[in-house]
Design a protein that fits this description.
Order of helices and strands: HHHHHHHH
Largest sheet: none
Number of helices: 8
Strand content: under 5%
Structural class: mainly alpha
Number of strands: 0
Helix content: 55-70%
Length: about 220
């Protein structure tokens, strides 16, 4: 777990992170903010489906390309941290990916983010945003391995996403600034608690996993002896 778990996230720190980030080893704060936003959005969608079972099913077949047969057993926070750890994409990439996700949801109101599609949606939008923002990028095959996909799946998701967006990927400075401001408001309005809670949950999951693994090795050593 990065040192961010001990940092109190504030709008000022988030803005500094977004505009002054220079190849630092720590996970960008924007990842925690984005993870909390998407988690809250998914929780709201799940609450709606308790009354309408069909609500999480996309009404447009084109947006079902992100649906996975089996959702990865990984939290959004952990998945975004994994993407950062292996790609080192800067904070602005995650902001632009957030812009793309928001545009997709606006263009297709029937599309609902849920546990079955969120991981593929994130790896696709982050890969496309990275190509738009950064000068140097990894190949699709590398992003595919990071996201737990085949190269063919990654290529298809990229093409399908581009057509869904109508190839309108440009994000001007004013739009970028407005989304940064939105992320800052999420922190100042009380999102900080939810972000810290998400970080604590991720820490607890990793702790339980390490205890479980150490217990298994201890059991194996006793058997060996």
């Amino acid at each position: 777990m990065s040192s961010n778990s001990n940092v109190l996230i504030s709008p000022r720190k988030l803005r500094y992170d977004l505009y002054s980030y220079q190849d630092e080893p720590n996970t960008p704060l924007v990842i925690s903010v984005l993870a909390a936003l998407i988690e809250r959005h998914m929780t709201r969608n799940e609450r709606i489906t308790r009354n309408c079972k069909w609500a999480l099913v996309s009404k447009d077949a084109k947006t079902r390309v992100f649906d996975a047969d089996e959702a990865p057993d990984m939290t959004i926070q952990s998945f975004l941290e994994r993407i950062f750890r292996y790609t080192k994409a800067g904070p602005s990439v995650y902001v632009v990916a957030y812009v793309y996700i928001d545009r997709l949801c606006q263009n297709y109101p029937g599309f609902k983010i849920n546990p079955s599609n969120v991981h593929r949606l994130l790896i696709t939008t982050i890969m496309v945003a990275s190509k738009y923002v950064e000068d140097m990028n990894y190949r699709n095959s590398y992003f595919a391995r990071v996201g737990g996909l085949t190269t063919q799946e990654m290529n298809k998701l990229e093409v399908d996403f581009l057509f869904l967006m109508g190839f309108k990927l440009h994000v001007n400075v004013s739009v970028f600034e407005s989304y940064c401001s939105h992320l800052e408001r999420e922190v100042s309005i009380g999102g900080g608690y939810q972000i810290e809670k998400a970080l604590r949950c991720a820490e607890e999951i990793k702790l339980r996993q390490s205890i479980d693994i150490s217990g298994r090795y201890d059991h194996i050593s006793r058997i060996t002896l």
